[in-house]
Amino acid sequence: MSLKDLPPIREALEEYGLLAKKSFGQHFLLDLNITRKIARLAEVVEGQTVIEVGPGPGGLTRALLEAGAKVIAVEMDPRFFPLLNGLGDAAPSQLHLVQNDALRVKEADLIAEHAPGTQASIVANLPYNVGTALLLKWLTGPWQPRSMTLMFQKEVADRITAQVGDDAYGRLAVVVQATAKARTVMDLPARAFTPPPKVTSAVVNLTPLTERPDAAMLKALERTTQAAFGQRRKMLRSSLKTLGGIELCLAAGIDPDVRAETVDVDGFLALAKIVLAQSKA
User: Fold this and answer.
1) What are phi and psi for residue 151, nearest 5 degrees?
2) Domain 3-208 bears CATH identifier 1.10.1740.10
3) d(Cα 27, Cα 5) in Å, to the nearest integer?
4) Considering the entire predicted model, what is its pTM?
5) Of all helices (H) and strands (E), which one includes residue 140?
6) Are 93 and 23 in contact (CB under 8 A)?
7) Residue boundaries of the structural domains of the chain
8) CATH classification code of 215-280
9) Helices H / strands E in the chain, number of each
């Protein structure tokens, strides 16, 4: 049996009596027209290695396999393995299932085991309850993906791609944009999912920067943005007081009388560079 011969995923869910678990943040995306579009937006090509987190019943997995990807699917919920194994049987040697917590798994080890010598992209409809944590893991951790095409709650997607002066601009935007180029490529209404969530969703494409801050610099950036946006209505001279206040701002070439939402990513990197230097002194 080939992928073309498989029945609709909705029928398989009914056959196995599977329902989404709120505790896992599960909302199933079963419309293959949508999942195929996500695979196209991710620019998946024949033979490409893709890590998918939280495949669930396999709607996106099926589209990735159809595009010719070699998929390493990380799933915590064993209820879905019969459905996913069926996809693997229809696409021999393309699908590798891993039962594990994506927050704990080491992606470099997965690639070494299942697709050695390749650079993997990540394409996933992320569980809402761990989406931001996973993104930060991939952007700031030791392993760096080739690219990421990820679905989030629309509110989170807006925070990821927000620009200076936007209401959604904050810590997440600064850390993400210091490490990657990010843009929203698709919006999805709640009715596209089973069961429908209470919020709309969006797909964000992220390309890690060739040169990104090292681990020490990222920690300094996190300290700086936490202080600045933790009291975002205050001027930096006050919100950054514990890190140096006026002197810190002047050393970084930043006006101490502005608020955090008016400082761009380069400005925060300049502040973090001074914070890091002070910590080493």
Assistant:
1) -100, 130
2) no
3) 25
4) 0.91
5) helix 131-140
6) no
7) 3-208, 215-280
8) 1.10.8.100
9) 12, 9
